[in-house]
Design brief:
Blueprint lengths: L1 H22 L26 E4 L5 H12 L19 H13 L3 H8 L4 E6 L2 E8 L8 E8 L13 H4 L8 E8 L17 H14 L5 E5 L1 H13 L4 E6 L7 H10 L3 H4 L10 H11 L1 H8 L1 H10 L1 H14 L18 H14 L2 H10 L4 H7 L7 E5 L9 H7 L3 E6 L7 H4 L1 H22 L1
Parallel strand pairs: 4-5, 4-6, 6-7, 7-8, 8-9
Antiparallel strand pairs: 1-2, 2-3, 3-5
Length: about 450
């Protein structure tokens, strides 16, 4: 009897020690909020000007791009009976490239982007590009400043379909958003660095400094993909600056979360009565991740190598990026030539690829995969919870799905969570109506949270 009692006590103590380890919070890393990322050394006086910017797809670039596409080498045809199971279907790719040369209207697409006010300003040595739309409303409507951050392969262009809705009063809400949609450094029209170490933590610092430069000491954030990594670190480091965080690729990789995710596979419907099939059985999910993560490993280990090919060939760039955009828009359509890409508007897809081609930023953007996993400060902050009120939206084909009981390990005040049976990774382009509606609902939840707190 004594032996059983002693054994039980030892087991209980061991479990408690293990639990304390899983839930312990690492020491917060020391971050230099003004670290210099520009060329050379930091000057005595920095340029803090804000400059209007206009997107230009000029004739020289267009002609060069078209000639490269026209003079491309012949592609190897798909195997018999194979659609997109082996990757980009080259018959379909040929059709898209022909459209890019003959029907995609470069000038019109630039005009559509230039309908929004664009700006550049230098933050910590790098020129950052952003769209800023200030709504015109009466004094009874509150204006909430909203920083929006994209992922890879993307830019602030990803938000152009939702900006008009977000900046216009909607029925049932007494507020609108003032949108600041920024290009991450090395993405879109933002300058990349020539120094190692510009990881999601450091980008989060830069984006917070951008908002301070624009006069916002407190603001809201919306983000997905790498933008959500940068933003999650931002809200963890600077909770006093962020009033609410809306995330469309929500996940927690705290130690306790990983254990809970594994334990959940034993009783998935108990753990998540919402959509357990989106993550369980884990063997199905891990098979999907293994099949689709080859690019991730390549860009993590050798981003500059793949960058040589993608920088030189617009056909190669299109094939590489379209295949990845397709699978995360609809993973169930690999048995089609487009592989899921037709979930998105083709002109939106080509806008994204054209912006990357024009700015020659495929290398500076893919380097984030390497920087994001090399630095201890990233891991320390990933395992640190945040109390900033958070809203999670989960679209059907998003890359990551975590149940709310796991999300709360990282986002202590999860004030809203909603799952959709439609949509995918590029939510603002794919399902702009639902995306905007969810963001307004999140805004109301944030305001209510702070009202109750007062």
């Amino acid at each position: 009897m004594k032996f059983l009692l002693l054994t039980s006590v030892l087991i209980a103590i061991s479990l408690r020690i293990f639990y304390n380890y899983l839930t312990s919070v690492p020491e917060r890393p020391k971050i230099d909020p003004q670290r210099w990322w520009g060329s050379g050394s930091k000057p005595a006086k920095e340029d803090e000007s804000i400059r209007p910017f206009k997107i230009d797809f000029n004739d020289t670039m267009i002609q060069d791009l078209k000639q490269r596409l026209i003079n491309r080498r012949r592609f190897t045809k798909p195997l018999e009976g194979i659609q997109s199971e082996y990757g980009m279907n080259t018959d379909y790719l040929n059709k898209v490239l022909t459209y890019w040369v003959e029907k995609y209207d470069f000038k019109k697409r630039a005009e559509l982007l230039n309908k929004f006010p664009h700006y550049k300003t230098r933050i910590q040595g790098l020129d950052l590009h952003y769209i800023r739309v200030t709504p015109k409303v009466n004094k009874n409507i509150k204006v909430l400043p909203l920083l929006m951050l994209h992922g890879w392969p993307s830019s602030s262009k990803e938000f152009v379909k939702v900006i008009p809705t977000l900046t216009t009063p909607q029925d049932g809400y007494d507020f609108v958003f003032e949108v600041i949609a920024a290009d991450l450094p090395g993405f879109g029209f933002s300058e990349g660095t020539n120094k190692p170490g510009l990881n999601p933590v450091q980008i989060g610092v830069m984006m917070r400094n951008l908002m301070l430069r624009l006069g916002f000491k407190q603001f809201y954030v919306q983000a997905g993909d790498w933008g959500s990594q940068c933003s999650t670190h931002m809200v963890t480091l600077f909770p006093e600056n962020v009033l609410g965080y809306h995330i469309n690729m929500a996940g927690s990789i705290r130690r306790i979360s990983i254990v809970k995710l594994l334990l959940g596979s034993l009783f998935p419907t108990w753990i998540d009565s919402d959509h357990p099939e989106r993550v369980y059985p884990l063997t199905k999910y891990f098979t999907y991740v293994l099949r689709e993560s080859g690019y991730f490993h390549l860009q993590f280990t050798k981003p500059d190598t793949i960058g040589v090919a993608l920088t030189d060939s617009p056909a190669g760039l299109a094939g590489y990026l379209m295949e990845k955009m397709a699978i995360v828009s609809n993973r169930d359509q690999m048995d089609t030539p487009h592989g899921g890409l037709e979930s998105l508007d083709l002109d939106d897809v080509l806008d994204t690829i054209t912006i990357i081609w024009v700015n020659e930023c495929i290398v500076t953007s893919t380097r984030l995969y390497s920087e994001g996993f090399r630095w201890a400060e990233d891991y320390a902050l990933q395992d640190t919870p945040t109390e900033v009120p958070t809203a999670a939206v989960k679209f059907l084909h998003e890359v990551v799905y975590h149940p709310d009981w796991i999300l709360r390990d990282k986002f202590v005040n999860l004030v809203r969570s909603k799952s959709y049976d439609i949509g995918g990774h590029f939510a603002a382009l794919h399902t702009p109506k639902e995306f905007a509606e969810d963001l307004f609902a999140a805004g109301a939840a944030f305001l209510n949270f702070h009202s109750q707190k007062k």
